[in-house]
Specification:
This protein has about 260 residues and is of the alpha/beta class. It has 10 helices and 10 strands.
């Protein structure tokens, strides 16, 4: 059995269904656990994130949407309030249920229709780790070291690239996010972004710069070709982490809808 090193919480008031899905995930090498209600799921999430339970925090919650006491939408809302970076995927037997739209508005990354497409679900889980991989393109070594240390401490895999050949080689890796300094010494960042868009139209690119006025026109042009956002140095790490969480969940939803 291959160890996939992901911990998944499956929530369903039909506990036999939850346990069946847990068994499938365990056979595939995932750490999976079942909860039979929303309150039980919240307790398990809280224990895992506090470190008081055995094992590590959950990487994803897969929850039925229609449950007594606390439904999937309410569960999603509570999880987002406590742990906003934890992705929640809802399951429903009713694709037109109004709760589906409510769940998506509350921050669920997708709503899957039962019976689940297990192969698609497994492909999605295999992508979760890639969504925590970041490329930093910046020729300020101190900035790169400091930011890399902060991100690695939060569980991100960080690589740095400076030359155009190395940068373009890395953009073919799915699931990554790029932080792109808009004023590089030897590369035109806007032209680089245009080339990146040809090779990977969906790569999330966050612009960074300390030259707000000087780079204003280049930043505007970059945003017009789907750069995700621009952060101005010095910025708070929490501001970047909030953007990364938003991007990560949007990319996960796109993968599940593909």
């Amino acid at each position: 059995m291959v160890e996939n090193n992901l911990r998944i919480l499956v929530v369903d008031d039909h506990l036999m269904m939850a346990k069946t899905l847990v068994d499938i995930l365990r056979v595939k090498g995932y750490e999976a656990e079942a909860a039979g209600s929303g309150p039980e799921a919240l307790e398990k999430v809280a224990q895992a994130s506090s470190g008081s339970a055995q094992g590590k925090p959950f990487d994803c919650v897969l929850s039925d949407i229609k449950m007594p006491e606390v439904n999937g939408v309410e569960l999603c809302r509570a999880i987002r309030a406590r742990q906003p970076d934890l992705p929640v995927v809802l399951m429903t037997a009713y694709s037109t249920d109004k709760l589906v739209q409510e769940g998506l508005e509350e921050g669920a990354i997708a709503a899957l229709t039962k019976p689940l497409d297990i192969n698609a679900l497994l492909c999605f889980f295999s992508s979760i780790r890639k969504q925590r991989s970041i490329i930093i393109v910046d020729d300020d070594p101190q900035f790169c070291r400091t930011l890399a240390d902060l991100l690695q401490a939060r569980g991100f895999a960080v690589t740095q690239a400076t030359g155009p050949h190395a940068i373009l080689e890395r953009v073919v890796v799915n699931g990554q996010v790029m932080l792109l300094e808009m004023k590089l010494a030897h590369i035109d960042s806007l032209e680089l972004l245009k080339e990146i868009r040809k090779r990977n139209p969906h790569l999330p690119v966050i612009l960074v710069t300390g030259y707000r006025q000087e780079m204003a026109s280049a930043i505007e042009a970059a945003l017009e070709i789907d750069a995700y956002a621009c952060l101005y140095k010095p910025f708070e790490i929490e501001e970047l982490l909030e953007l990364l969480t938003r991007i990560r969940h949007q990319e996960m939803g796109r993968l599940l809808r593909a």
